[in-house]
Amino acid sequence: MAMEQRVEEVERGVVVRLGGEVDLEQAPRVRDLLLRKVSQHPMVLVDLSAVDYLDSSGLASLVEALQAARKRRSAFGLADLSPASRRVIELGRLDRVFSIYASVEEGLDGSA
Amino acid sequence: MTRSLERRFDACPEELKQIREAVREATRGSGLDEETTGDVVLAVDEACQNIIRHAYGGCEGGEIELVLRVEDGSVVVELRDFASAVDPECVKGERDLEEVRPGGLGTHFMRTLMDEVEFVECSDRGNLLRMRKRLADRA
User: Fold this and answer.
1) 139 residues of chain B, pLDDT tens digit each
2) Which end of chain B, N or C, is more open, meaning fewer C-beta atoms within 10 Å of its C-beta?
3) What is the CA radius of gyration of chain B?
4) What was the ipTM of the complex prediction?
5) Does residue B49 belong to the interface with chain A, where contact is any CB pair within 8 Å?
6) What is the pTM of this model?
7) B34/A contact by beta carbon, under 8 A
8) Domain A21-101 classified CATH 3.30.750.24?
9) Can you list the alpha helix ranges (DSSP code H) found in chain B?
10) Is B4-134 in CATH node 3.40.50.720?
């Protein structure tokens, strides 16, 4: 499998750690996981530090999760962007749309 | 020096990893730095996604022919599908990116990452998309 994911419960919600290649093959699973977590928790922080590759379909999954979180008025953020994920988020000009944190710790503080 | 790659892939999401690896391998030693190579790989991936999702409409059994060559200071990528003719205007559109919505980003990526993106053939025999990245500059 080209993608790894881990979910860690924290005090106010969950940290979802994505890794590997988030492409058209993997994006549906990422989308389902994130939408499920957004529906279950008031705060979802996505750690992108281990993402080696992200494409528009992976980015669209993150956007969908953000939109779902906004609808529920819950918190959704991205943390510790790998160079590959930062490149694609900036290409999509979505770096001002997402709440982006330098680290997971900072994201947990920021989402309080 | 002219380096080239010519290979057919099944038009399905499971093949994209191999397509990316083939592009990476074919551009090795061409003078592209690592970041620019990553940009070309992403542009090809996005173009293949468009073929899989739109030209073939997600149907199985289609093929993508990938040709890559380094010539005249450029990396030239040609992607041929054997689906019905697509609207060549669909790679020209500008999108309002302030509007957050999933989908539609792939074409924007291709146009931003590559110096030239154009359909050189759209007919009942299929479509041929050509993309060019000049070796000297970055997106």
Assistant:
1) 556 899 999 999 999 999 999 999 999 888 888 999 999 999 999 999 999 998 998 777 899 999 999 988 899 999 999 998 887 777 765 555 544 455 578 999 999 999 999 999 888 889 999 999 998 754 4
2) N
3) 14
4) 0.89
5) yes
6) 0.90
7) no
8) yes
9) 16-27, 34-50, 105-113
10) no
